[in-house]
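Hey Z.,

So I finally got round to the zinc ion thing we talked about over coffee. Here's the setup:
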Amino acid sequence: MKDAHIEHILALKANNIPVVKFIAACCGATIETRANTDKTKNWDEFCQCPNCNHYVIKVTFSQQDGAYYEPIQPRFVESVKRGYDNRYRNR
Ligand SMILES: [Zn+2]
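And the result:
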């Protein structure tokens, strides 16, 4: 996952898409991500840390104001995966 993330960030930079850095709450690594250039709305997503693979809720703050990882408890991750599998398995 780390190499794929590095390739993703390099592709953003090669296309002059703004990137922000933040410290991952799960492992303390410095992570780069696409900057949110929206003036008012934050971006929220469920994802994995590219450094330690811990599942997190990532909030990328509007106005290119960095990002934040909220680490997710493993039992909650299992619940989300079960719900996802039930909904999308037969599509
Ligand atoms: Zn991490």
